[in-house]
Amino acid sequence: MSTYIENLNWRYATKKFDKDKSISEEDLVALLEATSLSASSYGLQPYKILVLKDAEIREKLQPFAWNQSQITEASHLIVIANQTSFGEELVDDYLQNVSETRDIPLKNLESYAEMMKANLIPLTDEQKAHWTAKQAYIALGNLLSAAADLKIDTCPMEGFDATKFNEILGLNELNLNAVVLAAVGYRSEEDQTQHFKKVRKSNEDLITHI
Question: Sign of the C-alpha dihedral, residues 91, 92, 94, 100?
Fold first, then answer.
């Protein structure tokens, strides 16, 4: 745990990446596996993770992210896209997976299915999109922590035009919305931000024990 805390102190929102350094396939697989293991409500994972390496696509996206250099200079750009809406299939598909993975008859999961559907299906489309976006941010948090543990630099990014990203990446047709980005790679020696002291609230101000 001491190493984990040390690595979290090491990480920062990298502003300038070394465009000549790429993440190894082994580390990328580990990073994505860690992200896929993120917690989500009911375990439903109502989002998709897009891993963008292609330089041409990222160059098309860059103007719609305020021309931030991280979009094109990082080793990879990860887009986490939440489902904009859903029906009973979200629960049904998940429980089919549960049944097959745990060797449990679907019939034994009916009451669980009814409970989830009763809580989720009546939500409005706006409420559903808000809920799925919150799940996506849990995945983002896990991605950032896992990257730090692998000594991979990251920059979480909300400064982009989601409408244009959705259009370029064809997400609208997939019932998806680009909700948050993470540039991943290795910091440039020229990035002065890495030398700044980390600023956080003290535990006394942030944490209350009851």
Answer: positive
Q: Which CATH number fits domain 16-86+125-191: 3.30.450.20, 3.40.109.10, 3.80.10.10, 2.60.40.10?
A: 3.40.109.10
Interhelix angle 89-102/110-120, rounded to 10 degrees, is: 150
Among the listed residues 45, 50, 40, 52, the one whose alpha carbon sits nearest the alpha carbon of residue 83: 45
Query: What are the tens digits of pLDDT across the range 130-167?
Result: 999 999 999 999 999 999 999 999 999 999 999 999 99
Q: In the predicted model, what is the mean pLDDT of residues 10-27?
A: 98
Bridge partners (DSSP) listed for residue 153: 185
Q: What is d(CA 18, CA 40) in angstroms, rounded to the nearest whole number?
A: 33
Q: Please name the helix (run of DSSP H) or strand (run of DSSP E) that holds residue 90, with its range, or none.
A: helix 89-102
- Within the chain, strands assigned E span 47-52, 76-83, 153-157, 176-185
User: In the numeric block, which tokens belong to residue 140?
Assistant: 């983002």
Percent of the chain with pLDDT over 90: 99
CA dist 114 and 88 (Å) reads 10
Query: In degrees rounded to 5, what are phi and psi of residue 158?
Result: -110, -5
- Give the three-state DSSP class for 11: coil
- Token pair, residue 154, equals 């990251």
Global pTM value: 0.96
